[in-house]
Every structure is written in structure tokens, then in C-alpha cells.
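Page 47, continued from p. 46.
Same chain as before, 152 aa.
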Amino acid sequence: MGAQQSKESQVFLPATPTEFSASLINKLDSSVESDYTRSQYTEKHIQDLVTEKLKEIEKQSSLALKDAFTKLPQPDANDNESHAKDVKQKLDEIKEKLQSRPKRGQLDEETTNARNKVVECLKANDGKPLKCWDEVEAFKARVKAVEDAVAF
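Result:
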């Protein structure tokens, strides 16, 4: 239905008499410009305006970015050296803490004695591990104390 457009010309009758010259009427009739070409010209004009405005906005934002960059404080070579010294000092402190911690698998004498008591008890009470409950609890308490001492 909407695909077919009427090609009939419409006639408007003005309230006041108007007269146009024959040359103007002939020029309007013979015009190659249609609604389609006029809409294309209009769209191209709008696209040109948008492109121009976008270039202007890009230029402004680029200037604003350059201005903001120049306002940033520039790092000093001395500042970098002091920062590097601070980092090195902190790393040395952490290294010392790690070296002072007991290593995994290394047990102090008290913990070793508690472990040996558990082993002896289990050997003496073969098949009856519940008789070594006190020794196991003492060993667990000693291990927990060592772990707490190792934690930072």
C-alpha cells in the first residue's frame, strides 16, 4: 500500500492572485533536483558540520591534555635515587626477617625432644596409640608455639 506513491500534482489556489513568469515556471518544471537529491545535499551538509565540530572538539581536548601534562610535576633524578634507596632499605629489612626465621624442617631442641617422646611412646605401645595422647598433645602445643613465633 505505502509502496506506491501518487505522482499526481497538487494544485493550490491562493486567496490573492499571484503571477509567475513563464521562464520561472519552465525552470522549476525542468529542474533535475528531486526530493532525494535535496535530502542527500542536506545530509552531506550536516555530516560536514558534524565533522568540523568534531575536529574542533578534538583540537580543544588535545590542547587541554597538553596543558594538563605540562602542569604535572616532573620527577627529579635525586627523587628517583632516594626512592630507590628506600626500596633497597625495605628489601634488606625483609631479607633480615626472613633469615632470622627458623627454616621449615628445622626444629629446636625442645620440639625435637617432644617428637622423640611421641615416637618412643608409639613404639612402646604398638597398636595402642591412644595411650600416647598426652605426648601427642604436648608435641602439638610445641609445634603451635614454634609456628606462632615464626609468623610475622
